[in-house]
Amino acid sequence: MLIVGIGPGDADAVPHAALGLLAGEGPVDATRCDEPVRALLEDVGVSLAEGAPLVAAPDAAAHRLAAERPEARTWPERAVLARRAIGAEVAALAGVGAHLRRECPWDREQTAATIVPHTVEEAFEVADAVADGGAGLPDELGDLLFQAVFLSQLLAEDGVADLASVARGQADKLVSRHPHVYGDVVAASAAGVVDVWERRKRQERADQGVFHELPPGLPALAFATKVQKRAGAVGFTFADAGAALVALEEELDELRADPGAAELGDVLFGAVAVARALRVDPEIALRTSARRFRSRVERAIALAAQAGEAFEEIAPERQLHWYELAHAAEEAVT
Questions:
Q1: Cis peptide before 76 (omega within 30 of 0)
Q2: Dihedral angle of Cα 65, 68, 74, 76, to the nearest 10 degrees
Q3: In this predicted structure, what is the pLDDT of residue 334?
Q4: Do residues 137 and 294 lie in contact, with contact meaning Cβ atoms separated by under 8 Å?
Q5: Which of 43, 117, 149, 226 is the most buried (most CB within 10 A)?
Q6: DSSP string, 46-68
Q7: Please, where are the H alpha helices in 104-206?
Q8: Element (H or E) spanning 11, and its range?
Q9: How far apart are CA 39 and CA 11, in angstroms?
């Protein structure tokens, strides 16, 4: 099978090279094309036959078919076809966003200020999906992607930018901050990459001080992580996880000696430092632990119920007993 991508799907946008290839081969299965494209193919001498091993389809459909048929050849090559399909699918999503702005009463009323809370919520749902082992991640990423598409639509309506310029700006920024990939700077490790990234950002924002880009509305874990990253960018950070753990123990001792909000905050801040030293995202780690705790409590409640005990009515010591059994059962499974 040869799968030929014919562009976004419009008759006036079929690549000339694709037409030449199709016209020079045998019958073509063009059932995935709309009527104007099929008419164009016939006009240039292409014979159409459903089920033929030569398939013509819009880039997005051709990419999906190629994924289903890994043995098939494609034109253009798979990597190029994938890029074209991404462009077509994102453009289709942008079209949905623009249509909703015109036709949906709720969407017409939205502003960036009213949408951003939904954007933050979708970002946390992506984090939840990752903490849950990746289940549902494609769907949650789609929700988050639409937030970017919709906010870009609002920018376009204000004449500030559009999705194309937003994407172009991000691509340019990534190229600029990866001179070890696109230039001659050497970064042999992940830590080296982070150093290069932060150094470039400091150069770009030399007039903004060490703690640039610190939105006050960030959740506490994200805010603490960003503060520590900014300090680390100028060398003020722990040498390794061991040093961070020592500092955390010191904060725990101070909390034991003087229990209170301030000392507890220092302990949490120290735990973030340990997470950074271990190269673990504290948000994902905490969400994973919270999910695990919830699962164990639910199992403990079920175990207690099997024994004829109502979990909410028994003493804390008995609750802990069932919780420990649930924990043990979980470890036995894993």
A1: yes
A2: 60
A3: 64
A4: no
A5: 149
A6: --B-TT-SEEEE-HHHHHHHHHH
A7: 105-109, 112-131, 137-157, 163-176, 179-182, 190-204
A8: none
A9: 9
